[in-house]
Amino acid sequence: MGTQFRLLGQIEAEVDGQPVIIGYAQLRAVLAVLLVEVNRIVPVDQLVDRVWGSRPLPRSPRGGVQHSVTLLRTALAAVPETVITWEAPGYRLTADPTTVDLHEFHRLLDEARATESDERAMTLFTEALRQWRGEPFTGASTPWFETVRAMLVGQRQAAQHELTDLRLRNGQHGALIPELFELTQQLPLDERLAGQYLLALYRGGRPAQALEHYDRLRQLLAEELGTDPSPPLRRLHQQILTADPTLATPTPVTEPSPVPTPRQLPAPPRLFTGRTTELAALDEALDEPAGTVVISAIGGTGGIGKTWLASHWAHQRLDRFPDGQLHVDLRGFDPSGEPMSPATAVRAFLAALGVAPGAIPVELDAQVGLYRSLVAGKRMLVVLDNASDTGQVTPLLPGSPTCTVLVTSRYHLGGLITAHGARILDLDVLPEPEARSLLASHLGPDRVAAEPQAVSDLLAYCAGLPLALGIVAARAVHHRTFPLAVLAEELRDATARLDGLDAGDQRGDLRAVMSWSVRTLSPPAATLFGLLGIAPGADISLFAAASLAALPPGSTRALLRELERGSLVQQHTPGRYRMHDLIRLGATDTAQEHLTEDVRDAALRRVLDFYTHSAHSADRLLDPHGPSIPVDPPAADVYLRPIPDVPAALAWLDAEHPALLAAQRTAADHDWPDSVWQLAWPLDTFLYWRGHRHDRVAVWQSALDATAHLPDPAPGIHARRHLGRAHADLGCYDQATEHLHQALALAEHHQDPDQQARTHRVLASTWGRRGNDREALRHATQALDLLDALDQPEWEADARNVVGWYAARLGEYDTARTHCEAALTLHRQHRDPEGEANTLDSLGYIAHHTGRHQQAVGHYQQALTLLRDLGNTSEAANTLDRIGHPHAALGEHEQARTVWREASELYRQLGRHEDVHRVQRQLDDLSAAGVDEGGPGPDIR
Predict the structure, then answer these.
(1) Does residue 659 carry a pLDDT above 90?
(2) Which portions of the sequence form the region Disordered (predicted)?
(3) Is the dihedral of CA 215, 219, 225, 231 positive or negative?
(4) Tag placement on the chain: N or C end, fewer CB within 10 Å?
């Protein structure tokens, strides 16, 4: 019996007749989605949308999918030749399609429709319908499942009609009468079914019963729908009334008139490069049971190479379409006029198929019907290029599964997916090797090889956009004797780059080509498009965009969706949007030309307020006991999303890290020193925990520069102290101590004991890093003496731990233990888990060096648990490094090896290469006795 997957009824799996236990409903839904797309990659975002639909998403949708896939892999482990693999950007279930009833249903239908034998066709249709065991995907009720279910039910009904027609044609009317009676009770308004029932009754010698059924149907249609029976049904009724002799025997099949073979494809592109993955995807779609393939641009807009790809692929596969190729440019984004109407396009297709002008029907529906009749059963390719929307495309889709359709559009034609099961092929920019190859094919390999730096610059400025590369090539070819460096220099200035990407006509002017997409936008979407061009960062979140636009998140999401449909932005991860580099330049142009300076500045102020207040909220969760600075309330129409806990704060900061750095640079560029300073403060804890050491230096250097313009000296002292600490973390100790001594001098000058204490605290850690534990202890003691008079128990606890650490480093273990135990009590009283972890780490060090190795392991493990819960990767690496030494002293070499390997990996991720080498030496010499602990001292915050 083998493997069987069932979707046409309950979602089930069997191996040799024995059921495979799949589990709960959501798991079966994930399996169903993967089986519908068997042997194809299903992006994670699609899985989330299809499985959860409008239902509340799990806290981590991607995590939910990953968990479901893990459970499915376990459930399907015993299913032969079935495997689920991760292949970016999603999962692929590999299996034999014939084991899936849905795909077997489609295969049998295709084979039935392709055969010329009525007997064979009836057998195949019957076998196809036997695949059904109930309502498809029973129990799954998301919008996607409902849409696919409705489509499948329609396909089943169509197959039943075709089988009935064949049986009527072959004299099986007697056996059909009871079957059709039951079906007409279930579907009383189905006129095609009614016609089949009338014909079966008439041929079975029951004309009076046929006429009675017709009268009942006519009355029901009038009552329910307010309509009369269709012309074909009225004609059949008349034939029964007159006992038309043609009804007594099957209508003979006549040979169709010869139809010309259209060959409408434009000339193939002469220089085509790369796109191997996309070409393979088109081939894969072609090999499926007749679908519709849609090519749509996400990573770019006009100029991404949609028509280029479609034309190349079509010419390479002409043998697959022996009955011809139809092509039309629908002018969806043509500057010369309105998009082509479907009526105009279908009339052109009818003419290409040999229909005389006088024989073309007047009504569009009749034209479409004639077109679909002419291509039915033909192996034809229909290329619908440059479509504006789904409505323009739908009338031009053949009804026959033997035809293949390629649609190119700047818009995402989602309606083709839901209504016609189309496959979307998202085109992104060309990878650098393919872009270089394309440029070389235009200019010749020698010219490209002669100026490698200029070529690299040109590739960077074109950012993988085929149209931009073509424009650059056209200009370089026009001036064959000019060095490529001249053209590269012209494009170097980003603000004028679009001026240089102009080959002299509308279709060779990148700015003009992009403008054709922008002009289709609604005014609010066009405004948001311009504002996104000036927003800080390479991408933006929904709530940041809402603040930028001064619109509620729901309204902003709708506008972003409009931009996404037009391929002007890409939602590259859920809730985050980005633009291609050249589109962003176009958006910046839009902002400069159509938005006033006041509007632009107000938008930037709002988005900077969003980043500032959100970052402060996140930092308060990471470091609730640390000092804070006053921040003015956010501007009106700033939309802040609550950050509930530490994991959410770290996740937000991880996602927004590049945007936050860009926001600070934007504030500096606009000479807004308050924003520069206020953005630096909440980033410090995060940058330290995550080991972003160079970013930390840059952030505080920018803050220090900005504080020179502030009347209050306190921010400048803070900035120097933090900058010194950041330099120390990088090992730049001379710069660190210089900044710290300046900060200390300023704090003493302004008689600020709090700032003096904090600066002594950082000087202690800096001297400790330099190996001078005695000087470190002196500064730590001064910090503690100052804090004793300030009544700041949280900071006193920190200072005591630092005094204890450096006393321990100097071998003064009793003194060290006293200070650290007092610090631990204070940290626990004030619920400071980070301070508690640092102090436990110090106590672990003291215990190890006083021979209490088991106690040391206990202290270190407690510290490590707290640091991991906090997400403090930097200090977790240090504690992992240190815990290996008592493990080694206890002879627990495997445990030591495990923690040192983990420490080494974290150090590598943090870019701390000297620590990586040191830990590797510890691993290499694990069995040696008396290995001293290395590594940095405690957290220098």
Answers:
(1) yes
(2) 244-269
(3) positive
(4) N
